[in-house]
Specification:
Layout (H helix, E strand, L loop, with lengths): L1 H10 L4 E6 L2 E6 L10 E3 L7 H12 L6 E5 L6 H7 L2 E13 L13 E3 L4 H14 L8 H7 L3 E7 L2 E8 L6 E9 L8 H15 L4 E4 L7 H6 L3 E11 L1
Parallel strand pairs: 9-10
Antiparallel strand pairs: 1-2, 2-3, 4-11, 5-10, 5-11, 6-7, 7-8, 8-9
Helix pairs in contact: 4-5
């Protein structure tokens, strides 16, 4: 887990402001106050003091942001207890799933579905809108969102001119990449599209130099979809915030 935590620590600052606070790397989104885009990551083996946690809380509150952390428990096993003692609450505990090229299982999309990379900003925007709605967010997509995602490896699933879903592989760093945003519009689920997107995107990531792809399922049930593509549980990630 330390290698994957190092990946997150290296990529989380992209497009964000950062501040080093004791054993924490605090990240702040430049154009969003959404809690999922503003969070801190502890150092491996961190044992934060009460004053360091207080300083972390203050850094977020001064920016009118929710004090929040995301991290892999195996990399910093003492941090969760310290945070809970300081008033933080567990939002969720989710598995971390990994897949190497040797583990990957190709999943074939239904015959009427084409999987490919977007070829225009309009396709990026339409895909992101489908993802937003699938995750319970507003469908509107800003130009900044399109710009932010343009350089990532992205796969969409379409039938005719209808984009039904897709996913994104983030930067490859030290042989690792994170798979995010796997989503299928509600009316097209149950056809194996999500598993096919995951497998296709993971294969492309491996072909472009990633040795290990990893993801954190939004809920336990969706983990079965990723297992079909060869992903296996390797650890857990916790999200905690101050309430």
């Amino acid at each position: 887990m330390s290698a994957l935590q190092a990946y997150v620590r290296a990529t989380a600052p992209i497009g964000r402001d950062t501040e080093r606070i004791g054993p924490f790397l605090a990240t702040f989104a430049q154009a969003s106050s959404h809690p999922m885009e503003n969070y801190a990551i502890p150092d491996d083996g961190a044992k934060p003091s009460s004053s360091e946690i207080a300083s972390l809380i203050s850094a977020y509150q001064q920016r009118n942001l929710l004090p929040r952390l995301e991290f892999f428990t195996d990399a910093a096993p003492d941090v969760e207890k310290s945070l809970v003692g300081a008033g933080f609450t567990l939002e969720r505990r989710v598995p971390v799933m990994t897949c190497t090229a040797e583990d990957r299982v190709d999943c074939v999309a239904p015959d009427h579905i084409q999987l490919r990379e977007p070829s225009s900003d309009d396709e990026f925007r339409r895909l992101r809108s489908v993802q937003n709605v699938a995750f319970g967010e507003p469908p509107e997509v800003s130009d900044a969102d399109v710009e932010r995602n343009r350089d990532y490896l992205t796969v969409l699933a379409e039938h005719g001119e209808t984009i039904m879903g897709g996913g994104i592989a983030l930067d490859i760093v030290s042989g690792a990449t994170e798979i995010v945003g796997i989503a299928v519009a509600a009316e097209h689920r149950g056809q194996g599209i999500a598993a096919a997107i995951t497998a296709h995107l993971t294969r492309l990531a491996h072909e472009r130099g990633a040795r290990t792809a990893f993801l954190t399922p939004g809920d336990v049930g969706i983990g079965t979809v990723y297992r079909r593509a060869g992903y296996q549980v390797a650890g857990e990630c916790v999200h905690l915030s101050l309430t």
